[in-house]
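TEACHING EXERCISE
Course module: macromolecular assemblies
Task: Read the component lines below, then compare them to the predicted structure of the full complex.
Student: A.B.
Group: 4
Components provided:
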Amino acid sequence: MRAWHFSENAYPFLPPAEDYPSIRVTLPNRLYDPKKGAALYDRFLEEWQIAEEEGVNIMLNEHHQTATCVDPAAPLVLAALARLTHKARLLILGNPIANRRQPLRIAEEMALIDVLSKGRLEAGFVRGVPTEILPANSNPVRMNERHWEALDMIVQAWTSNDGPTSFEGRFFHHRNINIWPRPYQSPHPPIWVSTTSASGAAQVGAHGYIQATFLTGFKGTPGIYDSYRKGWREAGRAGEVPVNRLAYAAMVYVADSEAKARAGAEKLLWYITANKVSPWFRNPPGYSPVAANVQMMLGDAAGGGFGNFGGNASVDAALANGTMFCGTPDRVFEQIKKFYHHVGGFGNLLLMGQAGFLDHEETVAGIRAFARDVYPRLQEEFPDDARSGRDVAAAE
Amino acid sequence: MLRLGEIELELHEAGDGPPLLFLHSGGGFEPEDAFVAMLARRYRVIAPSHPGFGHSSLPDWMDSIDDIAHVHLELMDRLGLRRVKMIGCSIGGWIAAELATKTPDRIEKLVLVGPEGVKTGRRDQLDIPDIFALPQEEMARLRFHDPAKAKIDLAKLSPEQLRIMARNNESLALLVWEPYMHNPKLAHRLHRLTMPVLMMRGASDGLVSAEYLARYAKLVPQARIETIEAAGHLPQLEQPEAFVQKIVAFFNEGV
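Instructor-supplied answer key:
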């Protein structure tokens, strides 16, 4: 199993949530103090460097017009990390390609970072959450189609190395594709795609890309991984899906005592609790399929993700629903092991290890406790090339 | 249902008399609405559901209001409608304006009710409030003179009605998202609307303002504006009698 330290680079110094309707999309940026923001970037970059020192890989993401993730141009931060680090794999998860107008530019950015980092890039692509739609002015209808077409163009750009090619798709057009530099890794960096839906996972599986899912817990994750495996098989891919194709993101905090771990975990819950969003930004028309919208109109909204909590976030609830692993090293190892077997195995653990007011010392302590006292056991117990599958995992 | 190229088009017809093409708003066409029967007493009302609305299909290559105008033009050909009166409400008005710029000679008289379609105001201010970024209560206030009329009891709707409602909403977003509620080219084509044009709005319409409609009307050679009291963005629903009466009077002028 490979572990990745992930921080959303949140800006937590906000007025009480009662004072604003939404932390995303509409929160005025006068509330952002650039001096405090600069200090936060120093700190978050250093935490990623410490993760590297401890043998943990690095993951970052991108959101727009929100205090929850002040990294609206992840490739820029990734470029900095490419020079500040030397051995960690660098995962961007990811590029919101359905919301960006020029896939070729993304192919260029990723190739550049791959060369800058001497082949350490893991290139992730995300559809983006509903609150990204308005900041991008992106049409919420046919996002999925745009997403896959953009990704096809990016792969074409990475793998066409003999002079110009062209691409004339439904959404994107380029008559001269001939990027410099080309990626360091051949034929291209590993590709990740995140999705929290079963239909999305089947498509990712059909392509054989690495599937990541966030906070989908005991309830949602097995179906997503099953769909991935189904998509993989139906596309005629050989053999069983190896666990290294699957990733799971959870809030993780490890400490040498339950009390300390619990204190850290309480702060990590900021991920869930500081996500006040106006309802009309949560579901722009077309973002979810018509059938899902009918279910929502009938008051039967689908669970999963932040919906796991139904408005009552607590460490106990998060532990129970599988969105958080926290405690002493022994306990966290057992929690992850239980989750691993429940979902049929996964080879990448994305550690949401910093949030809100979890300060630098606490964050670093959590990274170190995980890296030193849990990670080696995970690597030993769950080899990267193990086969995934709920029946397979049970048999083994 | 009618097949037009790749599209399965749902078509409602009611009444006898001179042909009247009615182009519905973003909420779709409801044949039971009172104004339909009132119009049908005098005219042959021909009301297609736009592609993506009601039961009409939506091919994946379609994504603009102008695409819809082409479909309805083809519908006129198919039905042998040489010349029609035309009413368009809200985005139906936008579609009607696009259509009429293509074949002005085939539109005898045109009624645009709370139409969108042009950008007339400042660059740093939306002409039409962002309907996809407002609370329901605010939307009710902007759309209706009496916001209580916006309330829909979802529990009383069939799964099929709910499906259509959700799909209409999705198709609306697809068509008007960007540029928001306008086609930058339409304003430069409106001089081709040489027929008499009646532009109407509800006095309480919070989406299409009086200023917007006045600027829109300036782009149309023979336009005049009328206001329907005690109505919002959908005067055909809130004040069907006044709505029909003003339209009939307009259609009867010069006859």
